[in-house]
Amino acid sequence: MEPSSHLYQPQRQSPKAVLLILLKYLRIIVRQMWPILLIVLINPTNGKGIIITVIAFGIALISLIYSLVAYTRYYFFIENNELCVRSGVFRKTVLNVPFDRIQSIDFKRNLVHQFLNVVSVQVDTAGSKGSELELDAIELERAEELREFILAYKQARKTVATYSDTFLPPIPIVQETPELILALSPKDLMKIGISENHLRTAAIIFAFFLGLADDIDQLLGWDVYGQLENTTTAMSLFGLLATLVAIPLFIVISFTITLIRTVLKYYGLKFWREGKSYKVVSGLFTRNEKSIQKSKIQVIRWVTSPLKRLFGIYQMNIYQAANVDQNKDKSLVIPGCYKEQVDHTLDTIVPEFKHAVFTSHRMHPAIVRLMVVVFGFIPAVLFGLMAWYNEGMMQWLLTLVFPLAILMGYLYQRKRRLKIDPDFMISEGGIFGNSSKLIEIYKIQSVQIHSSPMQRRRGLTSLHVYTAGGEIAFPYLNEKIARQARDYILYRVEKEEKSWM
Question: What pTM was computed for the model?
Answer without folding.
Answer: 0.79
